[in-house]
Design goal:
Blueprint: E1 4-11, H1 19-29, E2 34-37, E3 46-50, E4 53-57, E5 69-72, E6 77-78, H2 80-92, E7 101-104, E8 108-109, H3 112-121, H4 132-140, E9 157-158, H5 160-165, E10 171-176, H6 200-204, E11 213-221, E12 223-226, H7 237-245, E13 258-263, H8 264-274, E14 278-282, H9 284-290, E15 293-297, E16 300-304, H10 307-320, E17 328-330
Helix pairs in contact: 3-4, 7-9
Length: about 325
């Protein structure tokens, strides 16, 4: 049996934290045989800059940019219309997806009826209207449609058991998550959540053994953002300024994201429950340009006089969560780690 090694990328906040650029960086620098999208559907958008061009992917994993087998896993719900549009977008951008993009045959499919229902009923919690919730409901109600039941998807279908366990060589997988821990169906702020398992454990649900797990890359921003119906952004012009400077608009919907300071207690929960070994904190430059540094700790806003004091404090707190200092990375908007 081949040796399987698994690295997982998980968003530690509410999505939109820069998982795409972390996935792109790791796929470029590590020798992965597969990149796996392990949860969610087309309601997520990863903004990736590849060879000077901007791509926004919604379902297809970042491995496609480097010729790595890129799989939409069994934990996902697939919108075929969006899937084929995304393949065409990649081809138009000079990326050849032929023979590189695959769909787990037991992934469930988002139908037009799912999307129409979501657009009518999803407003109460602020969903994107992409049909994820109704598709997952039908999956667990045992009335759903699987990818193997859609003839147009036949050229892309694979059996994950065969892919993982009958290979002639070792398997090295980068599992790319969608949404964020604060939106997890079990651990998020219910009912303002997504419909899938966003945690690192969600990656294992794609037919992977627990002992394969090696590194968990947690991704967050140095402030928090949220798109949805619940109250989130406090009063104060600073939050609108951060949103403007950070270009905080949804990659899928274009909606303006709500802003708040980074909550260290919820970040600690996310780090511990996901078993994070490496942590990337994005958009440090946005707070620098905004000219204000703060976090929320024990329910109170803690202000810092300068960037150095802010970074030092956050590093100390991350170390107390169990993250090694050499595995902490502060990133700016246009750089990697």
């Amino acid at each position: 049996m081949p040796k399987i090694t698994l690295d997982v990328i998980v968003d530690l906040q509410y999505g939109d934290c820069g998982k795409g650029k972390v996935a792109h960086h790791l796929a470029r620098t590590n020798a992965y045989t597969h990149v796996l999208r392990y949860n969610g559907g087309a309601n997520a958008g990863h903004t990736i800059f590849h060879e000077g061009r901007k791509f926004v992917t919604h379902q297809i994993p970042a491995g496609v940019f480097f010729g790595i087998a890129s799989i939409i896993g069994s934990g996902c719900v697939l919108d075929p219309e969006q899937f084929f549009a995304e393949l065409a977008m990649l081809e138009a951008g000079g990326i050849d997806p032929k023979g590189k993009v695959f769909v787990a045959k037991n992934a469930h499919v988002i139908t037009q009826a799912h999307k129409e229902e979501d657009r009518q009923k999803g407003g109460a919690i602020g969903t994107t209207g992409c049909g994820n919730g109704p598709a997952y409901r039908d999956k667990y109600g045992r009335t759903g449609v699987r990818a193997q039941d859609v003839p147009d998807l036949a050229p892309y279908l694979i059996d994950l058991y065969d892919e993982w366990f009958t290979s002639s060589g070792d398997i090295s997988i980068l599992a790319e998550g969608a949404q964020g821990f604060g939106l997890d169906i079990d651990w998020g702020d219910y009912p303002f959540v997504t419909s899938s398992h966003v945690t690192s454990a969600g990656a294992l649900l794609n037919g992977l053994p627990p002992q394969s797990l090696r590194d968990v890359w947690g991704v967050a921003k140095v402030y928090e953002t949220y798109v949805g119906a619940k109250p989130f952004q406090p009063e104060g012009a600073i939050f609108d300024r951060i949103g403007d400077l950070g270009e905080e608009f949804g990659a899928t919907t274009g909606r303006r994201r709500k802003i708040n300071w980074m909550h260290l207690r919820t970040l600690e929960q996310a780090v511990r429950m996901n078993g994070v070994t490496h942590l990337v904190l994005n958009k440090l430059d946005v707070l620098r340009r905004a000219g204000q540094w703060a976090v929320i700790d024990d329910g109170k806003v803690v202000d810092f006089p300068a960037e150095q004091a802010f970074v030092s404090f956050v590093r100390d707190r991350l170390a107390s969560f169990g993250i090694k200092r050499e595995n902490m990375f502060f990133s700016e908007s246009k750089e990697m780690i």
